[in-house]
Amino acid sequence: MSLADCTANLRAPIATRVADKPTVRVHSVEWRKVQNGDPVEINPSVGHGYRVMTVDEWSARWKKNEAWPECLQCGSKNTKEHHFTQTWCRGKKKWESECLCLDCHSFSFRSYCDPDFKTPEEYEKERWQEMVKAEAPKAVAAN
Ligand SMILES: [Zn+2]
């Protein structure tokens, strides 16, 4: 899915919140280390081991989210996205995104879900419940 798909035909408001640490747990742990000046694990694609990193170094590999670059805290567009997930099911979408602001070091979290979005598991559960419902009267009659 492209970013355009993400931003097109939104049928519900985008939920937002600002935090002083990342929502994603693994990033939250690293963020605390960066803040404390503790060594952080080097990304396996560029090296190995641990190193003390500045916020800029830690976030160097992240890209800006071109659709929502604004920091929800200070309005700066000097942000980088470190978390993005999306789920599509039967043409319905759901996504979440979180960006770090390099100016105020706030984390801007945005999430969106189509009003009638259901996961494949939910569809499957409903199908079973329908089947059980359809079978129930017959079972009673047989007794
Ligand atoms: Zn900011």
Structure, explained:
With 143 residues, the protein is of the alpha+beta class. The protein has one domain. The protein has 4 helices and 6 strands. The protein has helices spanning 3-7, 25-36, 55-58, 120-142; strands spanning 15-19, 40-41, 50-51, 79-89, 92-101, 107-113. The strands form 2 sheets. Strands 1-6-5-4 form a 4-stranded antiparallel sheet, with no helix packed on it. The longest helix has 23 residues, at 120-142. The radius of gyration is 21 Å and the shape is elongated. The model has no long low-confidence stretch (mean pLDDT 90). Residues 71, 73-74, 76, 101, 103-104, 106 line the site of zinc ion (ZN).
- Overall strand count: 6
- Rg (C-alpha, Å): 21 Å
The largest sheet, given as strand count, sense and whether it forms a barrel, is: 4 strands, antiparallel
Whole-number mean pLDDT: 90
Poorly predicted segments = none
Number of helices: 4
Q: Distance between termini?
A: 52 Å
Basic shape: elongated
Q: In terms of quaternary structure, what is this?
A: single chain
Query: What compounds sit in this structure?
Result: zinc ion
Helical/strand content category: alpha+beta
What's the order of the H and E elements?
A: HEHEEHEEEH
Major beta sheet, strand line-up: 1-6-5-4
Q: Tell me the fraction of residues in β-strands, as a range.
A: 25-35%
Domain count: the total is 1
- Helix content class: 25-40%
